[in-house]
Each structure stands twice: as C-alpha cells, then as structure tokens.
Amino acid sequence: MESNLKIAINAASAKMGGAVTYLSNLLRHLPSAGSGFQFFVFLPSETAKGLLDIPASIKICPLPAKMVGGWRRLWWEQITLRRFLVREKVDASFSTANFAMLRCPVKQILLVRNALYFSKLYQQIFLPRHRLRMRIAFRLRRWMICRSIKSADIVVTPTRAMLDELRAYVDVPEAKALVCPYGVDPPNAQPSQPEREEAMRPRAVVRLLYVSLYSDHKNLNTLLKAIPILNNGGPGRFLLNTTVSPAWEGAAWTATHGEDMKLSQQPGISPWVRFLGPLPKEQMEHLYRGSDIFVFPSLTESFGFPMAEAMSYGLPIVASDTPVNREICGEAAIYFNPLNAEDLARQIRLLARDATLREHLSAKGQERARTQFRWDTHVGPILDMANRVSPKASEEFEPERCFK
User: What is the pLDDT of residues 87-126, one digit of tens each?
Assistant: First the structure.
C-alpha cells in the first residue's frame, strides 16, 4: 500500500471480562509500524493502563469513565467519534462490541459479541425475572444493535451459531457476514509425559474448574446443584474451583445472585466449592494446570472463550448442550442437558471414571485449540475486510504478510 490505511477501533465498552480479554489480544496481534496500517484505539482509561507491548502502529486514545456508559457513550459514538473520523480522514472503522455508528461517514465493520439479546433461552428463563426498567432497556439495546447491524458494511460474529441467532431478528446477507473465531494463546509450556500420565490417574478428590464472570446465563445454579449429587453418589469426592462468584460486586444487577448465594451455603455444597473471584493471568494458568475436568454450564454464549482456553491446556470438558458450545468444542467435550443437574453429575462422573475418554478429549481439545483458534487468523480477515471496504482498497493486499 502506498500510504497508511487508517483504521479507528471503537472499544469503548471494554471495561472487564471477555471484552478486555478480546481487546488486549486483538491489539497484541495487530501489525506493527511499516505494515501499511495506522490504528486509533478508543477505550476506557482504566483499561488503557493495563495494556503492555502495544505495536507502534497503534495510537491509544483513552476515554474518561463518564464517557463509556449510558447515554453519554451513545453521544460520543454517534457525534464525537464521527467528527474524529472526518477530521483525521480515517478509512474504516471497527467497533468491537455490538454498536455501530448510524450513517457513518466511513465504511465500518461491526463485531456482535453479546448473545443475550438474541437468545430465546435467556429471554424465556431470566429476562422475566428482571424489573420492568431492565426489560425495557434490554429491548432498546437489542433494537439499537439491530440498527447498528443494518448500518454496518461488514458484520462479524465469532461463531456461525451466533450469526444464526442474529438472523432471527435482523437480516444479515451472506455478502456482509464474516464468521471469525477468536484465538487462544498456547500455554507457556506443555506438560511432560509423567505429568500427562498423572493427570489420567483416578483421584480421591476430582478437581473441577469453571472459569467466567458471574451472570444469570452462566448457569452456576445447575452446577451447584450437581455437587451434592456427585458427592453422594459413590466413592471419591468432587471439589469445584470457580471464578463465577455470586458474591462478586458486579453480580448485583443479576436476578439470580441471591438464590445462588443461598444455595452455595448449603451444607452439602459449601465445603466442596471454592469461589476464587477474578484472577490475574499467572494464577489462572496455575488453576488450569491443577484441575482435572473443566465444566462449562453456560446457557448462551457468542463464543465461550474459557472453553478454548481449557482445550489449550488439555483439560477434558463437560459442557452444556448448546449450538455454540458444540461449534467451539466439537469432539473435545461431552455434553449435558443444561438445566438438568443430574445429567450434569452423570457426565462428570463418567469422565472422572474413564481415563481413556479423558485422554481422548484432552488430545482432541489441544489439537482443536492449536489449529482452529488462532489470533492471527482472527485478525487477518478483519484487516482484509477493512482494506476491501476502504477508499484505498488494494487488490494486492495479503493480510498474512502483516504478521511476519
């Protein structure tokens, strides 16, 4: 390319959880200076403080806390950002979370990453339990996302199942749809043969792991109910370590945290559950390596990043039987009826007793994480689309060259 392709990245919503995980990985894998790209990244100021090793091609544009929520964020996205795009002669815009600019002055790419607004299961089970104000806000946000999808030139989803759910509410022609799975970083070191053999041996206490942030749809309730069933059903005991804590301060808005707190304190559950809260990356690595089975009971996801992470560590997985979970895990997991604690306990016990099955799932998961979930193959197609829709479109552009 003769001159830099200027791309604005709107990550104003990247405040916690999966949004921050996505953004930090996206930025680390953007091409460096001299690649023909220049990036302007708008993100919360607190998130910006935690970013390290950012390529020189990226200009970080922190936003004060008051600008990244509610109506002020809407004003900023539709008015202030619009002025920036025109003033800086930006070629394309990439919005990383659900909302795009209406009548954008440049071509724009939109990542839709919140499955709740399009999940029938969530709307049947959890939405009616919220207050009227919350239900109205939910429908307004979904309407705004649908308007954003219509305004975008390219709509990105991390799974085909997520795209199918979108299409029940808004038309997304195949020509503007891009299914682009996220990546996962491989562990720092692979376990040795003795460590792999040790992981397959039966244990007196089977260590279960569930990683995510607490929310209604994370379905902690079913997993908690499975714990006494597991521990009363035969020899051996099952201990759950989880970052999905109903006591987390961000859980207060949910309709289920009170119920789950009471359930977690029951005598048959409390001694066998450890709520660990959000943990830094180094501690998470230790947690993955020290677990026997990864459990993912979530009812609705756009991708389910913890499953991909668990596969990269070779953990066998028991996941709720949903289209997204099957798309991500394939043959690297066994599945259960997501609202049936007894079925979940049955599948966990099956996996705990069968070393051959655990070894099979572990090998399938590591292969799947290595070959299907790579950040360069996520970023490459998005850059390709940005090049195609921009005024400086180059037919010779080859995104894979940007990562060499």
Answer: 999 999 999 988 999 889 999 999 999 999 999 999 999 9
Query: How far is residue 110's CA from residue 323's CA, in Å, rounded to a whole number?
Result: 22
Q: What is the pLDDT of residues 59-83, one digit of tens each?
A: 999 988 766 666 777 888 888 999 9
Taking the alpha carbons of 260, 128, 296, 333 in that order, is the dihedral positive or negative?
positive
Q: What is the pTM of this model?
A: 0.89
**If you average pLDDT over residues 115-140, what whole number do you get?**
94
Question: Going from the N-terminus, what domains does the chain have, and what CATH number goes with each?
Answer: 5-183+374-396 (3.40.50.2000), 193-372 (3.40.50.2000)
pLDDT at site 189: 57
